[in-house]
Design a protein that fits this description.
The complex is a heterodimer. By secondary structure, chain A is mostly helical. Chain A is 73% helix and 2% strand. In chain A, 52% of the residues are buried. By secondary structure, chain B is mainly alpha-helical. Chain B starts with a helix and ends with a helix. Chain B has a domain of 239 residues. The chains are: A mainly alpha, B mainly alpha.
């Protein structure tokens, strides 16, 4: 394989990596606030992309994206308030089944609403064929948009968790929920906020990559598994590591296409997931416990 | 066997007979086809109920075991080894009646594996895979276990979809009937519809007896202890890991049996049988029936599978299962047979009050 081809695969991998990273971060936000893995995480990405495509028929692109993010955030809040908020210390098994049920309901609602067709937003700048040449590698401007969006999301979350009252309270909540509640932190509202945040970033990522990866009603489940792989690879709860892990999984998956039949592509990340789970469940970036408290 | 269990089996048999007579009286014998298929899906749900209720382990990949059974028998009973008759192994297998001649599509003669041998092979394969997957997977808990089993299902689906020899997206068709005693065979066709119905539900009754005896035995007590408090059970000398693994393997074998017979009954199997949504359905059936409640699982599986196969829910089929999952888990996590109406209402009322109280 020539160097250029490898670089080309790398770029493709980074694009998909962006979305896996954001889904992984979304898992982490909710996990830190609640200890729940939200199996409907991939559905947020789908909802964001699909809503933006629909809104784009009515309003300019930036407004459509903003609208899609807001709508998805509202859905996130609705899910939390309707299904999660009032459960008293539910068992893990119960929460897994409930969030799976929610993900199916969202998916089926999307199927009714939008049908089976595959959709995409237009390219933000240029079109399908426009590309920038970076050191001999052709890169679609949309890839840069995706990377930029990922960067913005990470930077935003960093500022949010370090420098805002709500963010600090969420960290306190993650460290010790009961202690935080005793200090007057409104833990229940923070759980809602965690769903809103993770829905919002998922929707934004769904919009930005949709011109390249396309969106349809059924993409959520696959994204959830990959995002979970990423979250585990980085160590559950550690969002910075999740981004790095997202790029690793994206690139590995993309390189695998050159070696294996494309039908097996989806099996790659799952194999990675199983391998990590069996060998090193705390992730490759160190202890999840420590990471959860400090590294954010 | 205690009298109460005998009575339940009797009740079950009576219900099975009553349904058959009812369809006959109503002149709707065709409904037996879906009822028979429901029975085979019920086998999967029964195994999963044991796993979730007694071993406390979730599996989001049980459809994969069903598909492994179905594909194994489908492949073995439709493969044609006539061209390799010269080979020593093929010859020996033919002498042992493992390979039998059957007419192929073009009037010629094909040499395929006998369905009974295929059943044995399918079971062996499912058990082997369950062991191989179970040993590492069952060390995991909670979310990790759920995702790992979900991942296993995904891998099986994509392998089935990506492998030409397994028919890729089309699956395997033309699977011959499965011969039983006295000229009876598990297969489609209207003449043997009633007999097939009884064969299928007879299998369910057998599985029920087996599992009911198991959960009342030493093994069942050990499993309940593990479910209640794993550390305590371990401290009392219960080898938790081994019991969980065995339950997992047993439930996988039951799923594979369901897959084998349904494949012969339908004469075909497709990759959809291994999909995530199928696995989630089995979990939904178990959740509604009550995890660990074998009788509840049989009842819900019979009803839900039948309605779904009849297309009652139309395009909302998957959505219904999703909604059922959420509702049952929210209001009655022990299954609807143990639904405490007042507690559920109190929960809803409490929830409304709390929402109102908030500014």
């Amino acid at each position: 394989m020539s160097t250029e081809l490898v670089l080309q695969y790398l770029v493709a991998g980074l694009t998909y990596g962006t979305i896996y990273a954001v889904v992984g971060v979304g898992f982490n936000i909710i996990y830190n606030a609640t200890g729940i893995i939200n199996f409907a995480q991939g559905e947020f990405v789908m909802l964001g992309g699909m809503t933006a495509v629909t809104l784009h028929g009515l309003v300019p692109l930036p407004l459509a994206i903003a609208g899609a993010v807001l709508v998805t955030m509202a859905v996130g809040a609705l899910i939390e308030v309707t299904f999660i908020r009032w459960l008293q210390r539910p068992s893990v098994l119960r929460m897994i089944i409930i969030t799976i049920g929610i993900s199916i309901m969202i998916r089926e609602a999307a199927l009714l609403l939008w049908g089976e067709s595959v959709r995409a937003l237009p390219y933000f700048t240029g079109n399908e064929v426009s590309s920038l040449s970076l050191g001999g590698v052709h890169v679609s401007p949309q890839v840069l948009w995706s990377l930029a969006a990922c960067l913005v999301i990470v930077a935003f979350l960093r500022v949010f968790f370090r420098h805002t009252a709500a963010g600090r309270q969420m960290r306190a909540c993650a460290a010790n929920r009961d202690a935080a509640a005793l200090c007057g932190v409104p833990t229940r509202n923070l759980v809602t906020l965690s769903f809103v945040l993770s829905a919002g970033i998922g929707a934004l990522a769904g919009c930005v990559v949709s011109p390249i990866t396309y969106t349809s009603y059924g993409i959520g489940a696959g994204l959830a598994i990959k995002g979970f792989t990423v979250a585990i690879l980085g160590g559950l709860g550690n969002s910075t590591a999740a981004v790095a892990a997202g790029f690793i999984v994206g690139v590995l998956e993309s390189l695998s296409v050159s070696l294996l039949p494309a039908a097996y592509k989806d099996a790659i990340s799952v194999t990675i997931l199983l391998a990590i789970l069996f060998v090193r469940p705390s992730g490759i970036f160190g202890s999840a416990e420590v990471a959860r408290l400090e590294a954010r | 066997m205690p009298a109460s269990r005998l009575a339940r089996i009797g009740l079950f048999a009576a219900a099975v007979v009553a349904v058959q007579l009812a369809t006959q009286l109503a002149g709707k014998g065709f409904l037996l086809t879906q009822l028979t298929m429901s029975a085979y899906y019920t086998l999967v749900a029964l195994g999963l109920s044991l796993l979730m209720g007694y071993a406390g382990q979730i599996s989001l990949g049980h459809a994969a075991f069903f598909a492994i059974g179905g594909y194994a028998t489908g492949l073995l009973t439709t493969v044609d080894l006539a061209a390799r008759r010269g080979g020593g192994l093929v010859h020996a297998l033919e002498r042992a009646h493992v390979l039998v001649p059957r007419p192929d599509l073009y009037g010629g003669e094909a040499l395929s594996v006998h369905p009974w041998a295929a059943l044995a092979a399918a079971l062996a394969l499912a058990v082997a895979v369950a062991f191989a997957i179970g040993i590492p997977v069952l060390k995991l808990k909670g979310h990790y276990l759920a995702m790992a089993t979900l991942g296993f299902g995904t891998i099986v689906t994509s392998v089935l979809l990506g492998t030409e020899a397994l028919g890729a997206a089309d699956g395997i068709g033309g699977v011959p009937p499965f011969p039983l005693a006295g000229g009876l065979a598990v297969g489609g066709g209207r003449t043997a519809r009633i007999a097939n119905y009884y064969v299928a539900w007879g299998l369910v009754a057998l599985a029920l007896l087996l599992l009911a005896n198991l959960v009342e035995s030493r093994v069942g007590r050990a499993l309940r202890a593990i479910h209640g408090a794993e550390d305590a059970a371990r401290a009392m000398g219960v080898d938790a890991g081994r019991y969980k693994l065995r339950t997992f393997v047993l439930s996988a074998a039951l799923a594979a049996v369901g897959g084998v017979f349904l494949t012969h009954y339908d004469a075909s199997i497709g990759p959809g049988e291994a999909g995530i949504m199928k696995s989630v359905r089995y979990v939904a059936i178990v959740a509604v029936g009550g995890m660990g409640s074998l009788w509840g699982t049989v009842a819900t599986s019979a009803v839900l599978s039948f309605l779904s196969l009849r297309g009652t829910f139309g395009t909302l089929d998957d959505a219904v299962f999703g909604a059922v999952l959420v509702l049952v888990m929210l209001f009655s996590p022990e299954g609807i047979l143990r639904l405490d109406g007042r507690a559920a209402l109190a929960a809803i009322a409490g929830r409304l009050r709390r929402t109102e109280a908030r500014p």
